[in-house]
Write a structure and sequence with these properties.
The chain has 417 residues and is α/β, with parallel strands linked by helices. The protein is built from 7 helices and 22 strands. It binds S-adenosylmethionine.
Length: 417
């Protein structure tokens, strides 16, 4: 059946109305005329799986990546970047019920500081869109940048020379499973982490990546399809570094870091602009991204985070930057007192704040809250609950994730008087 894409839904899928039904078509844009031949039902939504754009909308642009349309990584490269930003501002404004502007990323190719490349019998690249069992073979990922071509070429040379087995998705067989690349965009440092099943790795593996600053071999002994494992060995540096303004952060294969360094700078600057008073709690502090940046600006910072390794990294980062911020292991729901802080910075995972934490905030009444969110839907729910005692002073979107429908939001809340 044939139809015109009316709009994009919040997940960046083109919406085509056919009779009473709405079919979601990936990689399309308003104005495209599409022929949908087959669709499948997923969580009460109809998603086109066999379709063709028979008349493209004039609003399209040429995607930079040759794998766009099959690779599961990017969904919106066919939209001019201004239209992507407009789409995200519209999404935030609709979900939060106020006008929200989105700060565009200054770099829209080569901005990602990390990619996790699948190594499989189906190909070396990314999951094919809509599948967990298939992969698109790639030579370069333009969203990470030129270095990805070099690393993938070295990996293929290693494979040609040594013929290790590649992972067979679904069967849990094969040795090489992932190669993860991380790059400090402001330091130029490169980390390569090879993730394998149990087995032995040729001694000369690191010689293929002699241009990298840090080379790791990790082993995933489980059937889970994850791109990390227990560290078996590393060569050269234990960490690479990234710099946001005057703060340097250590990056380890098993620690999280904001994935777009150029916008991570915008994010930490925005948070530090919104923080009031002197005493700050950095809750969900990870490796201390916000806390250390704030401590460097003279705030007295404590951080709480559930992952002990992230806490260890945060304390190391504090030491490296010569600041006195202290990070502790703890859960959001168990925070003892929020009343002693002038500002609480919250950066929860996609599920948002634990209901117990929401109740605790409403009871302890810290004066200011700076809420950083990667999921505007849970942000909107949490804001509704907090509105009993807090008014929204400022909200801004930061586009951390060009070519995807995702957007980061920073919100400042003030205790009502
Ligand atoms: C979106 S990340 C933010 C990390 C950090 N603020 C940064 O920018 O790098 C969310 C963090 O919350 C932590 N986390 C998840 N559940 C938690 C919980 N119940 N209590 C405390 N921290 C939690 C995760 O380990 C993760 O580090």
């Amino acid at each position: 059946m044939r139809g015109i894409v009316e709009r994009l839904d919040f997940d960046g899928m083109g919406v085509v109305r056919v009779g009473k039904r709405e079919i979601l078509v990936p990689f399309t844009t308003p104005g495209d005329v599409v022929e949908v031949r087959k669709w499948r039902r997923k969580k009460r939504k109809l998603i086109a799986v066999d379709f063709e754009v028979v008349k493209p909308s004039p609003k399209r642009t040429e995607p930079r990546c040759p794998y766009f349309g099959t690779c599961g990584g990017c969904l919106l490269q066919h939209l001019p970047y201004e239209a992507q930003v407009e789409f995200k501002a519209g999404k935030l404004s609709a979900l939060l019920g106020i006008d929200v502007e989105v700060v565009p990323s200054p770099v829209i190719y080569g901005h990602r500081n990390r990619i996790d490349v699948v190594i499989s019998t189906k190909g070396i690249g990314f999951r094919r869109r809509g599948t967990w069992w298939d992969a698109v073979d790639i030579e370069e990922c333009p969203v990470f940048g030129k270095t990805s071509r070099r690393v993938l070429r070295s990996l293929r040379e290693f494979i040609d020379d040594h013929r290790p087995s590649l992972y067979e998705i679904g069967k849990n067989e094969g040795f090489l499973r992932y190669i993860v690349m991380r790059e400090g965009k402001f330091t130029g440092e490169l980390m390569v982490n090879l993730v394998t099943s149990e087995g032995s790795l040729s001694e000369d593996f690191p010689s293929y990546f002699d241009y990298a600053d840090s080379i790791y071999w990790s082993v995933n002994r489980t059937q889970s399809d994850v791109s990390y494992g227990e560290i078996e060995r590393f060569w050269k540096s234990e960490f690479i570094r990234e710099r946001l303004d005057d703060v340097v952060y250590l990056i380890h294969p098993n620690s999280f870091f904001q994935t777009n360094s150029y916008q991570a700078v915008a994010l930490v600057r925005e948070v530090s602009k919104l923080v009031d008073g002197e005493r700050v709690l950095d809750l969900y502090s990870g490796v201390g991204t916000f806390g250390i940046y704030l401590a460097k600006r003279g705030f007295f910072v404590e951080g709480i985070e559930v992952n002990p390794f992230a806490v260890e990294m945060a304390n190391r980062n504090a030491e490296l930057n010569g600041v006195g911020a202290v990070f502790k292991v703890g859960e959001d729901r168990d925070v003892e007192s929020l009343a002693e802080y002038d500002t609480v910075v919250l950066d929860p995972p996609r599920v948002g704040l634990h209901p117990k934490l929401v109740r605790k905030i409403l009871k302890d009444e810290p004066r200011s809250i700076v809420y950083v969110s990667c999921n505007p839907k849970t942000l909107a729910d949490n804001l509704r609950a907090l509105s009993e005692k807090y008014s929204l002073e400022e909200a801004v979107g930061i586009d951390m994730f060009p070519h995807t429908p995702h957007v980061e939001t920073v919100v400042k809340l003030k205790l009502k008087v």
